[in-house]
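Quick question about two entries, pasted in order.
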Amino acid sequence: MEGQGAKLVRHYRDLAFMGFWEVLFNLPTILKNIRFCKKDIREYQPDVLILIDYPGFNLRIAQFAHQIGLKVFYYISPQLWAWKESRVHQIKKVVDKMFVILPFEKEFYDRYQFKVDFVGHPLLDEVGDELEEKTSENGQRVIALLPGSRDQEIKHILPVMVATAKSLPEYRFVVAGVSSVNAEAYACCGPVDNVSILFDQSYSILRSADAALVASGTATLETALFGVPEVVCYRSSYLSYLIAKQLIKTRYISLVNLVMDRLVVKELIQSACNQTNMKTELVSLLNDQEARTRLKQDYMELRAKLGGKGASQKTAGLILKYLEE
């Protein structure tokens, strides 16, 4: 957004806390930033407030903006269909227009008589037209490791991924690092002969990957759009996992399976997210050509379900249209 001319007053990475215990621990910082945001909105006096994802923070700001008479538009819906479904009633009160990027989200809101616009998924523009079968590099197959973009994710998932890599010395593993994360989070990667790290180059890594181990999140969808067979991994603190297990209502955790409404990619969750299972599923993905072909067909169906390109452009056009009305 800054690259497109927006003035950045806070970066979202300073607010991105994952897990229930982690959020509680960082609550003073979160509350401080909420106060800052409200003050900044009052001083700036915008014509419309456009919120993007990040529900824990943004829904509080939406309520504030509604109270002071601002129009509130929301791009990329909170995942109400996964947990805290009751928040839909709050959204109906304080959000004027909602723009959703997943096809089943429109159906979800329809059940509550709240009209939303499905605009397609913005990743279709970022990724482009991939879905090509990868070729091995110098005879050695490449496995992408995407352990997430937050310290907490990386802490719990990356060591297991690296242990899996050590048990498969015939393959080359490349970690998709994030430069904004503390470098110590990647300490477990070295020195390991068949493991390397590239920072802020996840798309480049996926373009050359034969398979991938991917932390649950948007990266699972990105990996699928690149046509890379993947195993989805989720592991968090035990307390956070227990709370999430009680609250989350969906059958799947990966966006690929959620959009397809069936098990397309394997999910390894918490205790199942271990070296033995990662190795077994990864080797199967690499060597079962029939399964790879079937997965590629599923990925093509997934792309079709996500709508056409130009999601953000469509959203911008709709915002202008609604403001004129």
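Here is the second entry:
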Amino acid sequence: MLAALAAVALVVWLVRARRVRQAWEARFVGVVAESRWLAHELLPAVLGTESPAARRNMWTASRPRLDALERSLAEVAGSAPQDRLGAVDPLRAAVIDLSSAMNTYAASTIPDDLESIGAARLAQRHIEDALRTLQSPSQDAGGEAYVQ
């Protein structure tokens, strides 16, 4: 009887653990998709804008979505399974660095502010590197690719 109860408890625990893992994976896929939007859509649009006022307006209009991404990344990092921390932390750091660099660039009133655009481009490379790492054929402990 005790063995049967232990077996049932184990099955319940395993099912719950799997559901928690699947929910985390879904949230992770979501933050990766938002990070791709940031890197591949928003960033080129803002960096391609020559007018400092238009650049500032575009960046300011996107801040709520970026703030939500940063919060989501913090939550995903805080709840990451131990074997997935290495996937989250570089992306989170790249998004934070990019946000900071772009805040400076967007606030600049100088059309060709080489220092702030250089920092923004460097941050852009870091987020691209973090996203590329997620797309590599690296395998986690379960044998699944990080992002498919």
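Reply: Helices lie at 2-47, 52-78, 85-107, 114-135. The first helix runs from residue 2 to 47. Hope that helps.
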